[in-house]
Specification:
706 residues; disordered C terminus; 31% helix; globular; single chain; alpha+beta
Amino acid sequence: DTPLSSWGVKSACVLPQSMTREHIVEQTTETVFLADELNLLILTYSTSYRGRAAFLPRIDIRSIWEERRPDYDVHWDEERRVLALRRIDHPERTSEDDYPVWVAFASDCPVEFSPEPGYRQTTYTKDAARRAMGWAVPYAPGRLEFRFEGDDQFAASAAFSVAVGDELDETVELAARGIKEEFALYDRKMRRVSDTMEELGVAMRDRDYRNSLMWSAASIDGLIMNQLGRGIFAGLHWFPSYWGRDTFICLPGACLVRGEFETAREVLETFASMQETDAASPHLGRIPNLAMPGETHYNTADGTWWFVREACEYVRYTGDVEFADRILPSVEVALEGALEKRVDEDALLRHGQAETWMDAGGESSPHSPRGDRAVEVQVLWYTALRSGAEIAGLVGRGDLHERWTKLAETVRESFERMFWDEHRARLHDHLDPDGTPDGKLRPNQVFAVTVPWNELLPRGKQEEVVRLVSETCVLPHGVASLAPSDPGFHPRHLDLDRYHFDEAYHNGDVWVRLTGPVVSAYVKLGLVEAAWEQTKVLSELLYDEGAAGTLPELRNGVPPEAGVNVAGAVSQAWSLAEFLRNFYQDYLGVVPDVPRGELRFRPALPRDLAWAQASVRVGKGRVSVFCDVADDGRSGRFSVSSDRSSPRLLVRFEAPVPLTESVRDDTVGAESILEPDGGLVFRVFEGAHGWEAEVSVAPRAGSDER
């Protein structure tokens, strides 16, 4: 009759695959883990206590939009000692898109079910602070009673499994399987998560940063799901569903840099299968902004262009031309649908007031209206046209390649002419429907600097953009969605006596994922140490605040005087993915283009790293890179080697110099062919005639070749 609760936890150990909490009560420890590929949660208890105990299930159906108190149908399987129940108002599974219907509880010790049906008014403290999902009435069917028994010299134990499924028998069987295979399931999960972390192949002098990268890999892996086909949950606990925009911002860091090519392909195919193809629809060609069982919404102007961009980036990493041929029809529907329905006379893309990523409040009452031509939407539209043209060219569709390439050039010219503010040397945030430019200082224009292929702005204008964003939106603790100098800036995410939290969402809240493009822009322009300062903030955040081992969605625009500075979802996919991407694509500077047979190698290590190495999957093989910079920054050794399955690659090496200066105005480089099972060594040094770079062929293992 003494309940275990979080208030009585003495210590907790969080691992990538599980969590163990030590309670004050009777030296009781509790371990929780989710099994791989099964709708199964397993809890185990170890205690010095002997005697009667009970496990009390509570079924909580909390909704963001409504509060429910449904009735339940309860089944007690006397023979197998398994409790199962379902909501009476929930229909039986009728299609692949419905949620599971049943939940079942099993134990590894003899249990008796004592029915005590009822509802328990419950307050959820953190959500109550948001005044959303803060109160509910969970249903308690009764008690699963048992005894802790055994020799007093050893701890007594009990295990429970919780399963969900579509049919009663199936769910009961799964719960029973969780008990029978508890140790095997845990071992399988532990080994797979361990492999996930080790396959990064990361080593460096900064051990904390290395571990934070490994934790990020494990945490993003925990958000890759199979709900409607393979996809990525946007975040927990607010966003356990597929969001198109989030998914494809995530894809490079979540999958490509980690070598999860098969998962990346499946994610692309999942969203392609949900694309709007109805010619009469105003959303023709769009992929979903939000997809969950039974619901699909197409209210986003940019998610589709992230999708097209990542289809191209996937092909560049893998060389999968067969996929390029399969995905081209989806790309064509997307681009041609937009050209037919949503493009103005200057080839720029029109959209609604709340169809950008700053969508809080929706079209009916947007808190950050940015219609009808937002700066980052035009950047993504340009990138999508370039990406589509590249895919079309790879599969022999010269007509589409030529058409989309010309259109991209028209967009580039229109963008620079209509968005560049010559007097203030900056880009407009958006154009109003009547063409009036909006000058709010937001970080969105930084995306014009991070176009992954084909420059959109001249170098000088890129530098002005980065300078402006750095001076106005980049804060010591992250990147704000609106400059603090703006009269509409909201300093705290939660200040409900003054405004709803959605009003702060894109008007002051710091978005953790925005550190990604800012770091990319900094590194591109040689501001490596400034980039590293922002990266260190996230590495420390991952350990010291919020949920252990992951990164949140938000932080306050102005940090509180005391307490943690995290908000929104406790684990956000694009925050984690961008953190990973920055290491591989920016600091290591490894970007493959397998169809062209090229690999860009542009390392830019901050002083704190000094040396780093990692393994990157390229095509059907792997490439390993090693970077080592002398403490004085006057020389460096950079090697790249491949395994036997790797394609033949032209490695284009470029190093900004000096090697440890925070601002670099010059570069040196070299290029050479990397054969399968081969290696190259690039040396950078300051010679008598300035900075030089040289390349040599590394010997194969056990060979005298050079």
